[in-house]
Amino acid sequence: MLDGEGVILRADGSSDFDRLRSRWHNDEVQLLGFDLLELNGTDLRREPLETRKATLASLLRGSHKGVQLVEHIEAADGATVLAHACKLRLEGIVSKRRDRPYRHGRSREWLKIKNSEHPAMQRVWEERYITALQ
């Protein structure tokens, strides 16, 4: 059981949310795998992230059409990583403690920081604005 996100990737590697939402994408959707929660009936959620990611990398090392591993980046300066992600027009970054077990939902052990200029965030702001007007 993987934790991941279905995306359609542009040639530059960024996500095309509009195309994904359009239903005109045939077999272009790929799964970007972030984490491995279970393997062959073994629950891996209690294992540290670095163990789960290494196992996932090993599992995906072969050819798996439509599934890609999201690599882990070691960085002490999250602001620099976020700035780079924004330059690449990515949605944002997720920061997780590599020595911690899996936690479902939001927690202090993982943070999702979004690129405020990304089209996905623009839709969030538009939806909030429309809801506020109603």
Which labels suit this protein?
three-stranded mixed beta sheet; 134 residues; two-stranded antiparallel sheet; D-amino Acid Aminotransferase, Chain A, domain 1; alpha+beta
Number of strands: 7
Q: Label the overall shape.
A: globular
Poorly predicted sequence stretches spanning 5 or more consecutive residues: none
- Rg over CA atoms, rounded to whole Å, is 16 Å
Helix/strand class: alpha+beta
Query: In total, how many domains does the architecture comprise?
Result: 1
| Biggest sheet layout | 3 strands, mixed
Q: What proportion of the residues is helical, as a percent range? A: 25-40%
**Helix segment tally:** 4
| CATH superfamily label | DNA ligase/mRNA capping enzyme
CATH class: Alpha Beta
- The overall pLDDT, averaged over residues, is 83
Distance between the termini: 40 Å
What would you note in describing this structure?
This protein has 134 residues and is α+β, with helices and mostly antiparallel strands. The protein has a single domain, classed as D-amino Acid Aminotransferase, Chain A, domain 1 (2-Layer Sandwich), CATH 3.30.470.30. It is built from 4 helices and 7 strands; from the N terminus they run E-H-E-E-E-H-E-H-E-E-H. The strands form 3 sheets. The chain has a 3-stranded mixed β-sheet with strand order 1-2-5. A two-stranded antiparallel sheet has the order 3-4. Strands 6-7 form a two-stranded antiparallel sheet. Strand 3 (38-39) and strand 4 form a beta hairpin. It is globular, with a radius of gyration of 16 Å. The mean pLDDT is 83.
